[in-house]
Each structure stands twice: as C-alpha cells, then as structure tokens.
Amino acid sequence: MQDIFLEYKTFIVFLHVISAVVWVGGMIAMRYAAHYSFLEIESPQKRLERIAHALKRLFYIVLPFVITLIVTAVFMIKGYGLSQSDFSALSHAKEGIWSVMFINLIVMILRRNRGERMLHEGNMVGAKNQIELIGKFMVPLNIILGVSAIFLGTYLSSNL
Predict the structure, then answer these.
(1) Rounded-to-integer distance, Cα 19 and Cα 71, Å
(2) Model-level pTM?
C-alpha cells in the first residue's frame, strides 16, 4: 500500500482534501445558506418537504466523497507511516473525528428518511421532530468537527 501511496501521493492527497472540502462545505452551504431560505416557506408541510428533499440531495452528493475520504485516509496513514510516527496520536484523533462525523451522517440519513416517511403518512409533528434536529444540532456538530479535522490535517501535512 505504501508503494501505491508514494506513486500517487499528490492525487491521493488531493482526493482526500477535496472530499473533506465537499463534505464540510456542503454542510456549511446547507446550514447557513439554504436553511434560511427554507424558513421563508410559509406552509410548514412544504417547508419540511423541501428540507427533506434538499437533505436527500446533499447526502447523495457527499456520500461518495465521504467514502473517498475514508479510503484516502487509510492510504495516507499507511503511506506516511503515521501509526508508527510521532504523529500517531494526532492521526488517531483525526480518524476519530471523521468516524464520529460518519456515524452522525448515517444517523442524519436515517432521521431524514424517517421524517420523509412520516410526511407521506401525514404525521407532521413526527416529521418535524425527525428533521428539525438535523439542522439545529447534527449538521452544526459535523461542521465544527469537520473544520477541526481539516485543521489537524493541515497541521499534520505541514509537519510531515
């Protein structure tokens, strides 16, 4: 794996960085641009429908990048030999952050899907409870974690 990394280092690091940017940037755009537009929709049902649809599109877009991020992280950890270096703890911290973000993403997808099902069943209160938590807490949490992981990655790469 180290040979592959050394051969394609620039490409692997690029894929890793662009994947992080798309994932975190997508969440920032959704939370701080689209979210406020959704609040302008007067009909609560239409608002929830539009939010559920936008989240579905966001998740479809970011999921391949999340997978790419994980795969490239493995290549970079092995390629740089981070597990056996002075940067082992920092590397594991970064892995932990992305892991928590990934679990949070899966829970967001499940909540969105449940919320959409409830919308189709006419359960507006249940749908709101499922979807509201995503925008208020789960996306902001992933944004904070993602920015932190990007900072750690920048620190790591500047010291390798």
Answers:
(1) 11
(2) 0.92
